[in-house]
Design goal:
Low-confidence stretches: 1-48
Strand content: 15-25%
Helix content: 10-25%
Strand order of the largest sheet: 7-6-5-8-19-20-21-23-22
Largest sheet: 9 strands, mixed
CATH superfamily of one domain: Urease, subunit C, domain 1
Distance between the termini: 47 Å
């Protein structure tokens, strides 16, 4: 059998014998990556390099130690102290990393299609200084108790308030247009973005996935809505079919309350085993409305309380206190915590000390790039800083790392396949550079520049150039500079999936071009819309719907109207609509694309 080995001086080659140890501190070329199947039918985003061993400070399931991890295809074959893995597998190549070897980080809560944006595109448009309710009331968005003063300025009180901002609405319009969203697009959205091939949903997902991958994130719950074959590869898209796990048993709900029929369906799926984890936004906010969502969740279903079980993980729970956490713990429910986003929107975050005291399993996740963190590493540092400033440092670095590995896997019902370095688990792992004497602190302090290697299912997808040969053959990986560090990043593959061949540069250029195109859509003279538009709106040409032959409409169209196709099927797929119409003003531009990493 041909395997990878380290031979000679700093050279990785294919051979039948020849085993040599190597310190990975030099420089190397950039390899490539393809798709393949790993052991147990697990598919991964890249061809594995076969059988090889990483030596360093290992973050094991029961503590840290100097030792080794054997990667055998898509799975971990050995985790042991000292050189036990090498002795048991003398034919395996050995790489001395001089780093911290940890499980891949797991992002349990991200709105991945929004990650083409960040704070430069939107953050709450509220007064930054606030000492009285009158200060908040200076904002037109702060009516009827929508806002309250906090130590961080004027903030919203629950999740139904901030989506009404016009500034947020414009960003949402761009996102919906670019992804060709079935739930609605702005009337000025060009037809050139219609359909899977033309839309930028694949590129949006890839960009968000790459933002996670370079920060050591190997799995993401991205809430992308309708799945697409192009989601295959890069970090695992856990909540879609293309997750490399042969099944998708995770259901999500970003809207509260979900429809009763939907909630009943989740209960049925959990009972049948089709769903192993249900992630739902509940209690996001700081007022009584947000708190009341806990009881509403209990009574929402035809069988009250059927969602109060071990499959349910509540995202946010910002309004909760000891009574709610005690009930969650009794039911085996988990909690997903996004402190940076909470503080940005509400000026407060979830009472994690109370959740811990009750025995609730807590996972940590960044939510999204606007107000939330750019990646899980940023979120880890935000959580540590918050703990030190507000909770007397109750959260240790070890516990924080557990929140994004073991606890995260548990919240997804995947605790038996990922989140720990154990034989038989998926070879989703990260090598961090830094102080091996303080492994957990090294991880929390890490940045994409100090992430030395990321494996997903044994496939090297990101890291320092000296590890690039592990990416194996196939389309060339990209070489990119991130915060002063040169890295390889394997984006393209030859799987044949839609847009699989795209490189990092091509993904970026496609998104940049699309954003610039939307920025360039101009308003029409108000006379083109009958002479006036409501306050805050302007006149635009209707480009979201294709023109249709006038005969297809049920009646002749009036002056200024045309026959448009508004649906693919149904009783009235064609309608007479104004050629031009009023829509919210596009008050700003949203290009350029937010970077993969903000180095500051």
């Amino acid at each position: 059998m041909i395997r990878f080995f380290i031979c000679g001086v700093g050279l990785l080659v294919l051979a039948y014998g020849c085993v040599a140890e190597r310190d990975v501190d030099g420089s190397g070329g950039v390899g490539g990556a393809t798709q393949s199947s790993g052991a147990s039918g697990v598919t991964t985003g890249g061809t594995t390099a076969g059988l090889f061993i990483l030596r360093g400070k290992v973050v094991g399931p029961d503590g840290t130690f100097d030792g080794e991890v054997l990667v055998d295809g898509a799975l971990i074959g050995c985790v042991a102290q000292g050189d036990a893995c090498s002795k048991a597998n003398p034919d395996a190549g050995l790489l001395v990393t001089n780093g911290v070897i940890a499980p891949g980080l797991i992002d349990t809560h991200n709105h991945i299609l929004f990650d083409i944006f960040d704070n430069d595109d939107w953050s709450p448009t509220l007064p930054t200084t606030c000492s009285t309710a009158t200060d908040c009331a200076a904002s037109s968005y702060c009516k009827s108790g929508a806002c309250a003063c906090t130590p961080f300025g004027c903030k919203y009180t629950d999740h139904d308030r901030w989506p009404k901002e016009a500034e947020y609405g414009l960003m949402l319009d761009y996102k919906q247009c670019l992804e060709d969203a079935s739930q609605g697009k702005p009337l000025w959205c060009p037809l050139s973005l219609d359909g899977t091939t033309n839309s930028k949903k694949c590129e949006m997902n890839k960009w968000g996935s790459m933002k996670g991958l370079v920060a050591g994130t190997t799995s993401i719950v991205g809430l992308p809505g309708q799945s697409s074959a192009c989601f295959y590869g890069l970090a695992r898209s856990i909540d879609v079919e293309q997750n490399g796990l042969e099944h998708d048993r995770v259901q999500t709900s970003a809207i509260f309350p979900p429809a009763k029929t939907s909630a009943d369906g989740v209960c049925n799926n959990v009972a049948s085993g089709d769903t192993e984890a249900y992630l739902i936004h509940v209690g996001e906010g700081v007022n009584q409305t947000a708190l009341g969502e806990f009881d509403k969740l209990y009574n929402l279903t035809s069988t009250p309380g059927c969602l109060f079980g071990s499959a349910t993980a509540i995202t946010h729970g910002t309004a909760f206190g000891p009574p709610e956490f005690e009930k969650m713990a009794a039911a085996g429910m988990k909690l997903i915590w996004s402190p940076a986003s909470n503080v940005s929107l509400y000026g407060a975050t979830t009472d994690i000390p109370a959740a811990r005291a009750a025995g609730v399993t807590v996972a940590l996740a960044p939510d999204w790039s606007m107000g939330g963190s750019q990646n899980l590493l940023d979120e880890l540092r935000f959580a540590r800083d918050w703990s030190e400033k507000h909770w007397s440092g109750v959260l240790s670095d070890e516990e924080l790392v557990t929140m994004v590995t073991k606890n995260a896997a548990s919240a997804l019902g995947l605790g038996d396949v990922m989140g720990r370095l154990e034989p038989g688990f998926l070879a989703d792992l990260v090598v961090f550079g830094g102080d091996a004497a303080d492994p957990y602190g090294t991880i929390v302090d890490a940045t994409p520049a100090t992430v030395r290697l990321v494996l997903v299912g044994g496939a090297a997808l990101y890291g320092d150039p000296e590890f690039a040969a592990l990416a194996s053959k196939g389309p060339a990986c990209d070489s990119t500079a991130l915060c002063g560090a040169t890295k390889f990043l394997c984006v393209a593959d030859d799987s044949g999936h839609p847009k699989a061949e795209q490189t990092l540069t091509e993904v970026k250029e496609a998104l940049e071009s699309a954003l610039s195109m939307l920025d360039g859509i101009d308003e029409l003279p108000v006379a083109s819309c009958g002479g006036s538009c409501p306050k805050g709106q302007a006149c635009f040409e209707r480009t979201v719907n294709p023109f249709a032959d006038a005969s297809k409409c049920p009646a002749p169209c009036a002056a200024g109207e045309a026959c448009f196709q508004v649906a693919q099927s149904g009783s009235t797929p064609y309608k007479c609509l104004p050629k031009n119409a009023c829509a919210p003003v596009k008050a700003r531009t949203l290009a350029p694309l937010t970077p993969l990493v903000r180095c500051n």
